[in-house]
Batch of 2 targets.
Target 1
Amino acid sequence: MELILTKYVREPNSYTLDFFLKHEGYEGLKKSLTMKPGDVIDVVKASGLRGRGGAGFPTGLKWQFVLKDTPKPKYICCNADESEPGTFKDHLLMERNPHLLFEGCLIGCWAIGAKVAYIYIRGEFYHVQKIMEAELAKAYAQGFVGKNIMGSGFDCDIVIHRGAGAYEAGEETALIESLEGKRAQPRIKPPFPAVSGLYNAPTAVNNVETLCNLPAIMTNGAEWFTSLGPEKNGGPKLFCVSGHVKKPGVFEATMKTTLKELIFDHAGGIRDGHKLKAVIPGGSSVPILLPDQLDIPASFDDVAKAGSMLGSAGIIVMDETTCMVWVARNLLYFYKHESCGKCTPCREGGDWLLKILTRLENGEGEMRDIDLLVSIGGNIVGKTLCAFGDAAATPALTTVKYFRPEFEAHVREGRCTLPADWRASKTPVGAH
Amino acid sequence: MSFHPLMVYDREHFHHSERARLDEGGAFAFTADRRATLDDLLTKYPPDRKRSAVLAALYMVQEQQGYLTANGMRHVAGILDMTPAEVEDVATYYVMFFRERVGKYVLQVCRTLSCALAGAERVTEALSEKLGIKVGETDASGMFTLLEFECLGACDRAPIVMVNNEHWHERVRPEDAGRLVDDIRTKGAAALNGCHLKLEK
C-alpha cells in the first residue's frame, strides 16, 4: 500500500514546517475550516476511524458525545504518554512528523469547538518534545496555530505538557488528573471526559496516531479511508514489532495484513536458528497468541475473535529460549511498579502475583501457587476503576493458560528450566 | 493530652509514620531566569489552574539543585497556590523526580519485556559491575547513579539506557555498557546522545 502516516519519516528534514508544507501540509485543516464543525464530525464518523491508543473506540462518536451546549471552554487532550510496553509508534510520528499531529489536533479542536489542545507527552520523550516545541513555534509564527488560523478567524492554541514517568497517565482520566497537576490516578466514570474532563469541562482525549489520521481523512474523504482496511477497521495502521525478530521496527500497513506477515515479512522473521514460541499482539496488557493463531488479519475485530486484543499494536515476539514464568514475572514487576494504588484489587493483587511469580521463577514455589495465580488474577479482572487491573492480571493468567507445564516444571525441578543466555547471569530474580 | 488515660502520646510511645522524611535541603528560590520561564508557562493554563504547572516547576527545581528537597517543594507550593503537602503528593508519585541526592549522571536502564528480551538484564549487570554499585545506588565519587526504568517506548532499539531523564543510548550491548561509563568519565556531557533517532534509509 501507499504509505500515509510514515511516507516521509525517513527523509532527513521530514519534521520541519517547510518540508511539511511542500507535501500537502495543513491541507486537511484548510479544508476542515471551510466546513461546519458538525460536518467534520460526520466525515470522521463515516470514516469509522477507531482510536489507536488501545481501546479502538470510534473517534467520531467520541467527539459527538462532547457536550455542545455548555458555557465552559472545551478541550482536546492528545494522549502522547505512549507507555504500553512494546509500543513505540507515536514516538516516530512526533519526532519525524510533528506538524501532522498539530494539524490533527487543530482539526479536532475545530470539530468539537475547542480553543486549546494539550499534548500530554511522556517525560521520557523530552528529546522529542524539544523538536516539537521548536516546530510549534514555527507553526505559530506562520499562522497555522494561534490567532486567526490561515485567515479563517479560528483561534486555537496548542500546548505541549510534559509528564514525569507514570504508565497510568496513559489512562484518559488519569491523564486529565496529571494535567491538572495531581497524581495520575483514574477518576470514577461516569461522568466521562466528554461531559466533564479537563478542568471539569467537556474534553476529548485522543491518541497521537488517531489524530494523525485526520488530515488524510479530511483530504481524501471517508470512503477512501474505509476502503483501506477490512470492514470497521479502515485506514492505515502503525504496527510496532519488537522482541526476537530480525528487523524490529514500526511498520505501516492496513489491517488486512496478517500478524504472520507483519512478523515474518515486515520484521524479517525470527532471529536465526530459533523458532517462534509466543506473541503478545497488542502491548503487554493483552493475552498471548500461539504460532498457529497468527494467520489472521491484524485488525481490532479479528485479533479479538482470536481471544486477544490489537490494543496499541505493540507486537512482542518471543522465541523458544523464553521462559514464560520469567515473562509473567517481568511484566508483573512492571504492573506492580506502575499501579497507581487507588483500587485495592490492583494494588494488592499485583503485589501478590509478583511475589508468587518470583518464588515460582526461583524454583521455590509449590504446585498450589499456580492455582493461586489464577485465583488472584481472576479476582482483579473487572474489579478496578480502570483497565489497568485487567491488564495487570493478564500476563499471569495468559501464561498459565497456555504454558502451565512450564510452571509445573519450575516447581518439580526447583529451578528455572529455561535460563536463556540473554538473561541476568549473576543477579538472582527479584534481587532488587 | 490523651484520649484515654492508658494511652501515652509522648514521642517515645506514640506511633509515628514510617514514611521517609524529605531532605530539607538548603534555602531555595528559583533563579530569575527559571522564575521567568515558569511565569511564562503559567500563561498556558487557565489563571485559576496554576497547579497544572507543578510537574514543570518540579523539573526546574531538579534542574537547579539536582534533586527535590522539602524547601524546593515549599517554594513551588508558594508560587502555585498549593500546600507543600499537595506538592509532595505529586512529587512522590512520578518516577522521574529524585527525592535524594543522585549522581551527576543517572543511568536508567529499561528493564521491561522487549528490552529484557534483548539483554537489558545483562546491561544492568555490566553497569553494576563496572561501577561497583547495585541498582538504586550512587557510586562513591558521586558521579553515577544506576537505576532500572520501566518501558521507555523504544522497543525496536532495545536495550535502551537513558541518562539524566533525557539522553537515550540505544541497542546498548552488555559488552558496550562499560564504554558508555568510560566515555562519560572522560568527555562528560559531550558523551551523551542529543537526539537519538539516526535516520535509517
Target 2
Amino acid sequence: MNHWMIFPILLPAVVAPLIVLAIRNDIVLARIFSIGCSVALLMVGGYQFGLASDGVIRTYAIGNWSPPFGIVLVLDRLSATMLLLTAVIGLFVLLYSITGWDNRGRHFHPLFQFQLMGLNGAFLTGDLFNLFVFFEVLLIASYGLMVHGGGGATRIRAGIQYVVMNLTGSSLFLIAIALIYSATGTLNMADLSRKIHETPAATQAILSVGGALLFIVFALKSALFPLHLWLPGTYANAPGPAAALFSIMTKVGVYSIVRLFTLSSVGLEWVLPAALATLMIGSIGVLASRSLGQQASFATLASMGTLFVAISGSNSMALSAGLYYLIHSTLCVAGIFLIVDLVIVKRPGFGDALVESPKFPYQGIIACMFFAFAVALSGVPPLSGFIGKILVLKSTQGFPNWHWIWLILFVTSFVGLVGMARSGSLLFWKCNTTQLDVALFDSNNPSPQVNSIPSPVASSIVLQSVAIGCFFALIAMLSVFASPVSVFMKETAEQLYDSQKYVDSVLGKDK
Amino acid sequence: MIGYAVLFGFAAISIALLMNLWRLAMGPTVLDRVLAGDTMVVNMIALIILYGVQRNTTLYFESALLLAMFSFISTIAYCRFLLRGDIIE
Amino acid sequence: MSIALIVLLPLLGAVFPALMMRLGKNESAIAASSVTILSLVLLLTNIFAISQSTVPQASWPWVPQIDLNASFFVDGLGLLFAVMILGIGLLVTVYARFYLSPQEALGRFFAYLLLFQGAMLGVVLSNNILLLIVFWELTSLSSFLLIGFKSDSQEGRQGARMALAVTAGGGLALLAGMLLLGQVAGSFELTEILKEGEKIRSSPYYLSILALVLIGCFTKSAQFPFHFWLPHAMAAPTPVSAYLHSATMVKAGIFLMLRLWPVLAGTQTWFYVVAGTGVITMLIAAVIALFRDDLKSILAYSTISHLGIMTMLVGFGSEMAVVACVFHVINHAIFKAALFMNAGIVDHETGTRDISRLGGLASLMPISAITATLAAASMVGVPPMNGFLSKEMMLEEVTHATAIGVAWLLPGLVMLASVFSVAYSLRFLLYTYFGPVRNDYPAKPHDPSRGLWLPPACLVVLAILIGLFPEAWAGSITRLASDAALQSKSPKFHLSLWHGWTPALMMSIFAFGCGATALSLYVPVRSIWNKALLPDAKGLYDLSLNACVRLARITTDRSFNGSLHRMLFLFVLAASALGGVVFARSSYERGERELLPINTSMFVGWVLVIVACFVLAWKHQSRLIALLTVNIVGLISSIAFIYLSAPDLALTQIAVEVVTLILMLLALHFLPKEAINEVISWRQYRDIVLSVAVGASVGFLCWAMMTHDFQSISSYYIQHSKPLGGGANVVNVILVDFRGFDTFGEITVIGIAAMAIYAMLDGMLTGPLSATLLKWTSGLRFSPNRHPMMMVVVTRVMLPLAILVACYIFLRGHNLPGGGFIAALVVSIALIMQYMASGFAWADERVHFDYHALIGGGGLIAAITGIGSIVLGKPFLTSGFKYVDFPFIGKVELASVSAFDLGVFLTVVGGVMLALANLSNLGRMTGDGKQ
C-alpha cells in the first residue's frame, strides 16, 4: 500500500486546520506553514508523476474498504499530471501572494490550502460522489478567495453570481448522481464504466440523462458556451492571485469530462459547435475589453474553447493535443492574471483599465512580462501556444468540416493578437507624463502621497517577478521540451481510452 | 382497539393540518402565518408520535423530541424578526 | 552545428548589448557588432562547401509529432540573404550607435535589433517550414517592438500595431498554407519538399496552398493591397527602416517565393496572381511615391515599388527572370539601405524630413550629397551603378512576357512605372540637395560625424563596384543563389554593363526622358493629385478596425450584461435541452416495480407541500412569507424521511431547518423585506414555461427512478455494517466509516464556509463597503423590549437539557439514529438560543473558546484519526473497534470512528457558530445596532 497517494489531499487538510487552530493571527507563521505545505505538495506531486509515468494505474482504498464499496483514489497519468500542475500553480501563486495579498483579509492561507485540497481530491478520486464533495470543497474555498480582502460592490456582486451559478451546478450534480446511481447502483467510476454496458434497456434513458446532466455541470465549471457568461465577470473581479489559481479550476471541469467520458466510451463530437462558439466569443471579448483583467478573462474563455475543440475530437491524438494545450493554457492564464494584478498594484488610480495613464514604476519589466505572456497566450511562435495550436489543428483534420475549424482557429488567433497588441501598446507605451509628476511614483523618492495609497506602490517587485518568471520559465520549458511532453500526453490519452485497463486496475481482473 | 384510535388520531391531525394550511395560505397578516406554521409543527409532532405507536417503534421519538425542543426557536426567531428586525442583538 | 549557431548567436546574444549598456554606448554597440561579426564569420566558413554544390545541413528533432524540427541548411539563396542580413546589420549597428540620441535606450534597441537579426537569419536558413514560420512570426514581433521603439509617439504605436496585425496575420495564413504544403508533399523539410514540385502542383490543395502562402508573402513584402503598413512602419528610428523595411524583413516574402519557386511556380495562376500583383504594386507605389513629402515616406513607397518589381520577376516563371530577381534583391538592398541612412542623416542634421522644407543641401553637406546622388542614381538605374544592371535585366525579361495575349501590356505598365520611378528619384535627390540654399532649416546643417556617413558610403562604394565589375563582385553569388532558387543549374548569363543597343536600354532611356519631363511639370500635376479623392489605406484600416472593436464591444456588452437571471436561464435551458435530446435518443421502458398504497396522512402531507409551493410562487414578493413556506416544505420533508424509514435524515433535516432559518433571518435583516415587483413580460411567461417543463421533467425522472428496480451496492453496506464496521446504524457507519472520506470533505466544506463568511464580513467591515454598511439602518420601527425575560429564562433552562440530548445522540449514534453531525447541530442551536435571548455581547462574553479553534481542532482530530491508521500500516481512515469490559459499566465498544465523529462534531459546531455569530455581529455594527 503506497500511502503517498493520500498526501496531496491530506497535507493541506492538516496544514489548513492547523493554521486556523494555532497561528491564524500570525501572518509570518501562516506564510511559512503555507509555503512549506506547497513545497511539500510539489515534491509529492513530482514523485507521483514519476510513479505514474510507468503506465501502471495505482489505487488507494480509503478506509480499507475495497472498491466499489469504499472510496478509492486512483492515480494514473492524467491524475498525476493534474496534481503536478496544481502543485506548481499553487506554489508560485502563493509565492506571489505573500508579498502582501494574503494580509489584506482574513484566512487567506487556510482557504488557499483548502482550495488545493479540493483540487487534488477532485483529480485523485475514483468515486463520483466523492468528486462532488471535492467540487464543494474547492468551490467554497474559491468563493472565500474570490471575496478575499473585501473589495467593492462589483467584486461582491461578481462573487454572488459565481457562487449562485456554482451552487445551482452542484444541485444538478446531485440530481445527475442520483439518476446514475438509480440506473447502475454504484458510484465508483470504474464500476460505473462496467455497469454502463450492462444497463437494461428499460433504464438506459435514465442513465443517459444522468450523463448529460453531468456534462452540463462540468461544462458550467469550464465555461463552455452557453454556460460561459459567469467566467469573465468572476475572473476579472477576483483578486489577482485568486484568479491565477482559478486557472486550474476551469480545468477541473475539463478533467472531469475527460475522465468520465473516456471511461464511459461516449464520444464528444457534438461538443464542437459549442467549443467553436466559446472560442469566438472569447476572442471577440479580447478585442472588446476595456480592462486588462477583462481581456485576460476573455482570453481564458477563448483558450477553453480551443481546449474543447481538441477534446471533441474524441480520439487519443486529439485528446493528447488537448492535454498539451491544457497545461499551456493553465500556466499562461495563471501568469497573465498575476501580471494584471501587478499592473493594478503599480498603477494607482487607474488600475488595469485600458486608458492612458502616467508612467508607472516598473513599467518596463511589467511590459516585458506582459509581452511574453501575450505572445504565449495568442499562440504566436515560438512559445507553447503555437505548438499547442498546431497540435490542435492537426488533430482536427479528421473532422469532416475541418476547413471551417481551421478558419475559426486562425481568425480567432488573429483577433486575439490584435486585441492584445492594442491593450499592450495602450497600457505600456501610451503614457502621458504631463498629468502627474513621475517622481511621485519613483521608488527612491517616496512622497507622502505614495504612502497614503493603500497598496504598496513603491515596494520592490522582486518576489512578484520571480513568481511570474517561474511561470514563464515553465512555459518556455513546455515549448522546448514539447516533444517529450506530447509523447507523455499521447501515452496519457491512450491510457485514458483504454478504459478496460482502468476498470481492471481498480476492481481487479477477476470480476 | 388501539388501531382505531390511531386512525382517528391520523384523521383529526390531517384535518387540523389542512386547516393550518388554509391559515398559512390566506393570512391575512404575517403573524397569522407564523402561528399557522407553529401549530403545524405541533400537529407534526403528534403525527410522528402516532406513527411510532402505529408501527410499534420508538425509533422516531427522537425526531419528535428535537422538533418539540427546537420548533419554538423558529417561532421565536420569526417573532424577534418582526419585533426587532435583528434576531440576535 | 555551426549553421544553427549562425541563427542562435544573435538570438542569445541579444542580452549582451542590453547588459553592456551599463558601461556605455560604445560598449553596447561593440557587443552588438561582435555578435554580428561572429555570426558572419561562421556563415562564411560555409562558402567553400556551398561553392562545391553541397548543402551544409544541421538538424535536431524538436517536436516530431507535428513535424516541427530544428533543422537548418544553407544553400546559395540562404547564403545570399544571410550575408545581406549580417552585412547590412553590421553597418546599421554602427550607424545606429551614432544616430540615436543619448536619451534613447540604445541597449534595448540593440537587443531588439539582434533579436530581429536572429529571427531573419532563421527565416532564410530554416530547412523545416514550420520552423521557418516560427522565425517568420518572430520577425513580425521584433519588428513590432522596433517600430514602437519611440513609444511616446502616436505614429510609432499605431504603425507598430498595424505592421504586426498585417504581417503576423499574414503569417497565420502562411502557417495554414505550410501545414497543407507539408502534408501534400509528405515532408516538412524544404530539401524534401523542393523535390515534390509535380506532386504539389497537381494536388487538389494546390490553389489553397498557393493562396495562403501568397497572402503570407504579400503581407510581408508589402504587396498591394497589403502595402499600407510599410509607410507607417517608417515611424521606426531610421536605422530600423534602413535595415528591416528596405533591406531585409520586407524581402522575406520575396525570399519565400523564390524558395518555393520550384514547387509553386510555373502555372497560369501563379503567373497571373504573382506577376499581376507585382506590376500593380510597382505602378501604384511609384505613383504615390512621387507625391509624398516625407523623405522616408518617399523611400518607403519606392521600396514597395521595387518589391513589386521583384514579385513580378518571380511571377514570370522563367528561369532568367529569377536570376534577374536575385540580382535585383542584392542591388536594391545596397542602394536602398544607403538612401535610408542618408535620409536619416538629413533628418538628424537639419531637423526635418519634409522635402518641401529642404533643398540646396549639397554645398552644406557635400559628403552626404555625393553618397545620396550615387545611391539615387543606382535607384533610377543610371550607369555605371549596380541598379542599372538589374533594371536592364528586368526590362529585358518584361519584353519577353506576354499577359492575356497582349504583348505590349506588361512592358507598357512597367514603362509607366519606370517613368514615375525616375520622377520620384529625381525629386528626392534634387529637392533635397540641389537648388538654392535656404536659410530656414530647423537646424544648422553640416556633414555628420564619420560614424554616420561611413556606413552609407561603404554601401555606395559597393554599388559602384558591382556596377563596374559585376561578374567579379556579384557574379558568383548571383549564380549560386539562382541555382539554389531554381533547384537546377541556372541558364548561362553574363553580367556586364554593356549589352549593346537592346530594347531594354531604349526603354530605359525613354523612361528617363519622360521622367525628367514629368518632374518639370510637377507643380500642376501635384495640384491635380491633391484635389483627387483617393482612398486612404490607413484610414480604411483604422475605420474597419474601429468598427470591428465597436461591434465586438456591442455584442460583448449585450451578451455579458451581468444578468444572473440570464445565466441561470441559459443553464436551465441547456440542461433541459441536452437532457431532453439524450432521453429521446435512448431507450426507456416503464418501470415494473409495484406501487405502494397511499395513506391519508401522507396524502395530506403531499397536499401541504404542493399548496406551500403554490403559496411560495404566489406570495414570493414578501420574503418573510417565502421563507415561511420554504420552512413548511422542509418540515414535510423531514416527516417524509420518517415515513420512508430514515430517522437519521429526519433528525438532521429538523435541526438543519432551524439553523437555516436563523441564518436566513439574519441575512434578511439587511435585505429589502419586499422583492421588486416585476412587470409581467414575455420573459416571465418564457420563464414560467421553462420552469414548468423542468419541474415536470424532474418529477418524471424521480418517478422513473423509483419505479425501476435496480441492483446496488447498498446491500453490501447493510450486510457488513455490524460485523465489519462495528455499528448497527448503517447510515452512521456509512457516514463515518464506509464513506468517511466524504464526511471528511463535507465537514471541511462547513469549516471553509464559516471561515469564508467570517473573512468576507471582516473584509466588508474594513474595506470600501464599510462606510455604507456602518451607516445603514433598516428604517423600520421596532419594539423597545430587547431581551424579554420569559425567553431568557426558558433558554437558560434549555441549554443543559439540549446538551444532554446532544451527548445522548452523539454517543448512541453508531448503533441507533444520531451521530456527531446531528449532535453538533443540537449544541449549536442551544448556543444560538442564548445569543438570541440575551444578545450577542452577553453571550460572546461567556463563550471561552474561539470558534476558529473548534473548526481547526475538529478538522485536525478527524485527520489525525485517519493518519493513525496510516501509522499502523493501514490505508487512511481505516477503522478499528474493540469491545472492552470496564468495571461497573460493563462491555463497551471502543471505536476509532468515535474519534472521527468527535472531529465532525467539533468542526460543525465551530462552523455553524462562527457563521451565525459573525452574521449577527454585523447587525450590531450597523446604524440600527448602535442605537
